[in-house]
Amino acid sequence: MKICMIGSGYVGLVSGACFSDLGNTVICVDINKQIIDKLNRGIIPIYEPGLHELVIRNLKKKRLLFSTDVSSSIKKSDIIFICVGTPTKNNKADLKYVYNVVKSIKSNLDKYKIIVTKSTVPVTTGDKIEKILNSKKNLNKFDVISNPEFLREGEAIRDFQYPDRIVIGTNSKKANNIMKNLYLPLIKKGSRYINTSRRSAELIKYASNAFLATKITFINEIANLCEKSNIDVQDVATGMGLDNRIGSRFLRAGPAYGGSCFPKDTRALVSTGQIFKTNLSVVKSVINSNEKRNKILLDRIKLILKNKIKNKNISFLGVTFKSGTDDMRESPSLKMIPSLVKKGASISYYEPTGQKKQFKSKNITFHENIKDACQNADLIIIHTEWNEFKQLNFKKITKKRNFKVFDMRNLYSTSEMKKNKINYFSIGR
Fold it and tell me: 113 lies in which domain range?
């Protein structure tokens, strides 16, 4: 099939590369010429394991193309995916980029095409898109459907190739048959294909992210209780997770949730509830609790350092919101690090993806390796759960004798750290 992905950011690029790998001809379009020039030279603007190889392979086979020509790309394609950003503005999803794309599609509909919202959009967005596209000239030339993405940063290619489910929101039998055929290679491997109404598909994405955010926030609150009651939160999470109704995923205590999805999607879902005069009190509580999480951890750091943060050397291992990605959007480190600097601390950090342009202060220094970042540390904070942080010899990476370790990801055993005479602190234990 001939596919056009409008928006060559995270979702558009990963999905486009994966669709081309299934044998389709895919044009990834973006108005940012610099991004397209890089992609045509095989330079990937985002960090995602395996993506570079996938792009290069399909570029060489000429199944994957990159262009800034929106009009031509729309005309050459049968299925158009809208993959532009929907950032939060005043706690609502800002859809200006989506509607700009829709206007471009409207002027370039020369034959029947399926218009797919891959971007995360609030309920009724598909209705509004359909209304914009409707005209005598475009009669019977399109179907607007919702096909939400469920790609986890750091595992996006696997998630595309082996999805838990493929959700197609449309009442059009024609569009549904075409989309089912597009996804047939994945369905044959056992992926579940679900056809719902368009509005249901739009809400499935928001509801899924809000529920996962709830699990993270819930276990973080349980971890707070565990710390005060001498209980290991990992025992609690294991005991809960073995219940099939609950499941173990996303029951790992740690920093606040961040990234490009959970923060904006929970806020946008509450906003949708307000439009429909529905009080989503649980989701509101999740947002509120998550916003307080940084303060709780900063208070813990203060306690670990016995209220003496000024002139302390603090090292952060990892600054992205999770491992496997270079995404800094709403990462807890963006609030914690400046707050510690304001209290007089000097911050050194190491980030495996090389993120070194996020912090602007003479008291914040990026280092190219773990040892340089930690050598003068009074406190080492494990902020992100990268594999290379899981087997560190702390006594060899720092010169200080009385250093402390605050493991925000519970990567180490408390008994082993005690045995090695390391002053160790973790979450909910």
Answer: 2-196
